[in-house]
Amino acid sequence: MSSPAIVLRARDISRAFPGVQALSGVELTLRAGEVHALMGQNGAGKSTLIKVLTGVHAPDAGSIELSGLLVSPESPIHAQELGISAVHQESHLLPNLSVAENICAGRYPRRPWTRGGGIDWRETERRAAELLASLGINLDVSQLAGPLPAALQQLATVARAVSTDARVLILDEPTSSLDADEVQALFALIRRLRDKGVAILFVTHFLDQVYEICDRMTVLRNGRFVGEYACARLDAHGLIAAMVGREVAAAEKTAATDAAAGDAAAPPVLSARNISRRGQLKPMDIELKAGEVLGLAGLLGSGRTELARLLFALDARDTGDIHIDGQPAELDHPADALQAGLGFCPEDRKHSGIVADLSVRENIALALQARMGLTKFLKLSEQRQIAEKLVAALGIKAASIETPIGQLSGGNQQKAIIARWLATHPRVLILDEPTRGIDVAAKQELMNEILELARGGTAVLFISAEIDEVVRVSDRIMVLRDRAKAGELPRGADEDAVYSMIAASHQP
Amino acid sequence: MKRLTQHMLFWPAVALLLLLVASSLFNASFLALTWRDGHLYGSVIDILNRAAPLMVVSLGMTLVIAVRGLDISVGAVVAISAAVVALMIGGSFSATGEVQSAHPLWMALASALAVAAACGLWNGLLVVKAGMQPIVATLILMVAGRGIAQLLTGGQIITVYYAPFFALGNGYLLGLPVALWIAGSLWAALHLVMSRTALGLFVRSIGGNPEAARVAGVRSSAITLCVYTFCGLAAGIAGLIVSSNVKSADANNAGQLLELDAILAVTLGGTALTGGRFTLAGTVIGALIIQTLTSMIYSLGVPPEVNLVVKAALVFAVMLLQSAEFRQLAVRLARGRAT
Amino acid sequence: MNRRLLPLTVTIALFIAMAVFGAIRYDGFLSPQVFLNLLIDNAFLCIVAVGMTFVILSGGIDLSVGAVIALTTMISASLLDAGWNPYAAMALVLVLGASFGALQGFLIQRFNLAPFLVTLAGMFLARGCCYLISTESIPIDDATYAAIAQARIPVGPGASLTIGGLIALAVVAIAMRIAHSSEFGRTVYAIGGGESSARLMGLAVDSTRIGVYLLSGACAALGGIVMTFYMLSGYSLHAVGLELDAIAAVVIGGTLLAGGVGYVAGTLFGVLILGIIQTLIAFDGSLSSWWTKIVVGALLLLFCLLQRLFEGRTPRSAQGTA
């Protein structure tokens, strides 16, 4: 049987933004009647590639061919006219309108003037119902979209996307908020569309879903094209290695510290039992001992950040309790966690980390000041002293400590946020992706700094998507998968062990 | 020189300076100061005196705007505060022709301020606890507040005859108006709080990035509540000054359009409506700009109605200058012309 | 019953409850003319509130409507004084009102300015222009206006409606049609439901947003015309604070201040409720008229809190502007 026709061919796509090369030399081939997975970790370039395909960004280099014809989409609407439809993670239905209206918005059937003019609502509902029926979706189109469960909204959104005779359908993380049954309903729809000859690009981080529904996959890493594989030919282990395998061939194995992790008999500094939050994290236990680096490994979507946020009381936990030094602790607000000696360096520094207009000095002093309270004010000279010391220690490149932090590069901003928490001399420091966006040399410095911290008695929870980093610096590794705990590994475990633990359930 | 022009206060200060220069061009004796009746006397003193209530309210508004909030009820709170103090003092003569106050003066003042602060707290609770948008939350008090003030005064203008009360709005201390001393003290007190406590840092971080402030352990809810309460209190102080100045409480007209002037003063002074960085000195300058403008228009013989049009033009100008899209367009047009 | 009709049902129920309360408590409350007077006395508020409904549905706000009404009355009075044809004068002020609104809408859309601030400045500007024309009241003694003002359309035994009231009803009917059956109206709802989603769907968000402010300006001008019938004068102090009443009517009518949900019919009932509060207080005789403001404020609070519950209690990131 000959290979199905190629519908979309993207060749040598490159795209840069100020300060970062998001894509370079990326290839993508989509065939009719095929479900194709786009795989890669955070920062791999998946969303940029989708934006290029849907016309949000123009590529700096490379070409896109649709059924052999060269095209350059200029906007999502234009892309849709060309036949490329996308359903994004943020594609929501308009919650205040009916399903029928959502599907037909912008293309309403009209009554002729002789019959009163205006929108023909009966015809609108009929068309919408017909479309949904043809896709096997069972839904009352006259309902409001808002109260519908996310799964049904998702199906309706997909229906709208294909109602324009799309030849290419891009689904960006469509299953993030769906449960098992709902995923199956979506897959049924995808199979129907596939059988109609639509080329489907499926972006997800759930490995088992990839193997369940996809025929081929393209893997990206750090903006580069790693390879295109048939799902039957690359197992989960190989896939993980392709996505996160280390770039630098021989990384120096940092001498794992032999410094004893404090008094073995003392209760753990931080322990959480049965901690969970509906829809975000399944119940699990975690323990952190003084002077220890606990690495938290897992793929995107495994629940690492969610766990960190629960520990730091940024999100309210549904079940479980937290103990500090063996005593129960009421942590309702990050300020409580701060008082208890915890620190949290968030993953998204732009959104939850830096206050862009404040100076480097003020950003660094912020958490310490917050812990000291309103009236015990850190004098300017003290703030300067603390900031300057940390800037030097972490190698933060800034014109001066008075520069607004928004003007620093991403990596230096990250270092400043870490400095903020170091200034509080925390007993427990949670670092969520601290090395993202930092160059190799600086990463090394940071890792050493983390080890220093642990040697000084701080318990460190180190979260990173770079599994080689986690392996290098951790005393113990906790592995998460699909928002649940997959297991723990002792010091000395290598990356393969981690891959295996993650992949364990994915073996076909 | 570049550093100077980029200073936050540069343009507001220049604007004020230009207005003062223009005023003295139109009126030769504008800047003249004389000593009369035991105090300083002159157009400038007049401006400072009249600007005092606006300064006070605007200082409170500055902090609210800095935490990404807004309070459009301050005018109504001014009316309520004036009503409370007038009621507590009472407007009656005693049999001997000597005027008494129904309650001790300190009690009347304290009650008015307490009620005003409670209004501010009410607004804060709606915003923080009920999660309402600030404009919606404060709209309610703006509508109902005037009704409450009118209820308190029975719809009448309550005249106050108790002389010691007049000192607030009409008296002089060391040659300068008492009202100015009040505004100045409030400014100084705030400045002290900003420089001696972490409040300034916390307010700027909450306004700059509420999520980041929360992650850093700042108690955003408590601080926001305090800020709204203070704004109410400031409106209360302004209400005392205003009613003392006119020796009466007029629930219908007291504080009319004051919230708009206050927001204008804050934005003219350089504080961005999007929150974060703020400047108290800028607000004071902004209030002075508004008052100087009003006085200049009046002294020019231009009908005072022009005032509103000028204020409108100012608001548009400031808004456009603060809009990134507008600045981009202006830059593009400038470049287009240069080529 | 449709969940979306719930707010409207609450509003209508409240209106009926107040009417029943009045009927029980006061004699003569239930006469048809009393109810028609609700519409007659608030005809201009009704028209303005209809325009405001569209603005709020799109997630915006318009604080300039009261000032535009006053400006309309001033310009009308001045034109008539100068001998203009009354219908030409009406046409001109309608165009001016629409243009004023469109200008505000353009600034809001093009430069991403806060609607609250732009329309606030617009309010200053319009009131200022009023004062520039005249600080005194300008009486209108044009024969056509007088005739229109006095005209009464019989609606039943002992009950009649003014032209203003009729116009208000017509505006409500047309607006209901636009909201329900036109692409423009549906796009307004879409913007209120989620601007970015609406854009992704390819809807004409930009031009629609300018359109709602144009509509609001036109309604304000029309309301101003109706007010000139009612007051037979142009005066800068007309309609002070009317924008707040309009917003209150819209909210009490069941429209969410966040946008996206609400019915024009609800606004009509919101206006009637405001009217009935005033009527109840007038009938009582012992309560001072400023109780109206307090009751309106309390109702506003109640409805806003109910709306927060309706939205599911997700705290909004504090923004200073609507």
Tell me about this structure.
The complex is a heterotrimer of chains A (508), B (339) and C (322). Chain A has 508 residues and is an alpha/beta fold. Among the domains of chain A are: 6-93 and 148-234, Rossmann fold; 98-146, no CATH class; 353-425, no CATH class. Chain A is 34% helix and 24% strand. Chain A has helices at residues 46-53, 76-82, 99-104, 121-134, 150-162, 180-195, 207-213, 236-244, 304-311, 334-339, 349-352, 360-372, 380-394, 410-422, 440-455, 467-473, 495-503, and strands at residues 6-17, 20-31, 35-39, 61-66, 69-71, 84-87, 168-172, 199-203, 216-221, 224-230, 270-277, 281-288, 293-297, 319-324, 327-329, 342-345, 428-432, 459-463, 476-481, 484-490. A six-stranded mixed β-sheet of chain A has the order 6-7-8-3-9-10, sandwiched between helices. Chain A has a six-stranded mixed β-sheet with strand order 16-17-18-13-19-20, sandwiched between helices. In chain A, helix 8 (236-244) packs across helix 17 (495-503), helix 12 (360-372) crosses helix 13 and helix 12 (360-372) packs parallel to helix 14 (410-422). The longest helix of chain A is centred in the middle third of the chain and has 16 residues, at 180-195. Chain A is globular, with a radius of gyration of 25 Å. Chain B is mostly helical. Chain B folds into two domains: 36-304, ABC transporter involved in vitamin B12 uptake, BtuC; 305-339, no CATH class. Chain B has helices at 2-6, 10-26, 43-66, 74-89, 105-128, 134-153, 163-170, 178-196, 199-208, 210-215, 220-246, 258-268, 280-299, 306-322, 324-338, and strands spanning 34-36, 39-41, 158-159, 172-173, 176-177, 248-249. In chain B, the strands form three sheets. A two-stranded antiparallel sheet of chain B has the order 1-2. In chain B, strands 3-6 form a two-stranded antiparallel sheet. A two-stranded antiparallel ribbon of chain B has the order 4-5. In chain B, a hairpin with a 2-residue loop joins strand 1 (34-36) and strand 2 (39-41). In chain B, helix 2 (10-26) runs parallel beside helix 13. The longest helix of chain B is centred in the last third of the chain and has 27 residues, at 220-246. Chain C has one domain (3-16, 29-310): ABC transporter involved in vitamin B12 uptake, BtuC (Orthogonal Bundle), CATH 1.10.3470. Chain C has a two-stranded antiparallel ribbon. A two-stranded antiparallel sheet of chain C has the order 2-3. In chain C, a hairpin with a 2-residue loop joins strand 2 (153-156) and strand 3 (159-161). In chain C, helix 3 packs across helix 12, helix 3 crosses helix 13 and helix 4 runs antiparallel to helix 5. The longest helix of chain C has 27 residues, at 205-231. Mean pLDDT of chain C is 87; it is low at 313-322. Classes of the chains: A alpha/beta (508), B mainly alpha (339), C mainly alpha (322). Chains B and C meet through helix 6, helix 14 and helix 15 of B and helix 6, helix 12 and helix 14 of C.
